[in-house]
């Protein structure tokens, strides 16, 4: 994992496929440095914090969660920040906080579709002892959009997505932290887009004034590159 700088105030860490570790963001601020997404484990968060410290960047005080999926949230407790998420995301986190982590409970969630086989496989890759997982809900939730008055304006708002019903994105310094909002969803061995949701997602992105985006599991792109990629995906549906 590497820490890379995109603008004077915006950084991100690179993703890792093997353990399904997504990109994590950092927004520099003199009072409340922001961590974008909570990582998939305490180990993931520890590596992130070590990279910040090596660059002389202050530890985050505010954590913004783009959506509830495990790889973006199971490190929330370890981040030890005031946590902010949408109402939709926090409702899902509250549900997940009551999950058990025995072998039987994990298997049952896959069987019922409450969890995907893809996520279950990577959770087991990241955690030698899944029973140690702690899911923590956010400290504060918002409806639709919240503006953060930091050294630079930061918008945190819900966005229609083909990936999940609770996706929200963060806009800072012309950089859009997408989380996984651009992604398809795993269905068996395939990754599948919902055509209507993808069309709505593309239309919403067109209206957002960003120049670069940080994607959860792929390298950053310009707005033009992202839209071109998603339009190609749409044309194949």
TrEMBL record:
Q: What is this protein called?
A: MBL fold metallo-hydrolase
- Please give the organism: Anaerotignum lactatifermentans
Q: Which InterPro entries match?
A: Metallo-B-lactamas (IPR001279), NDM-1-like (IPR050855), RibonucZ/Hydroxyglut_hydro (IPR036866)
PANTHER family xref list: ACYL-COENZYME A THIOESTERASE MBLAC2 (PTHR42951:SF4), METALLO-BETA-LACTAMASE DOMAIN-CONTAINING (PTHR42951)
Q: Which Gene3D superfamilies match?
A: Ribonuclease Z/Hydroxyacylglutathione hydrolase-like
Q: Where is the Metallo-beta-lactamase domain?
A: 22-217
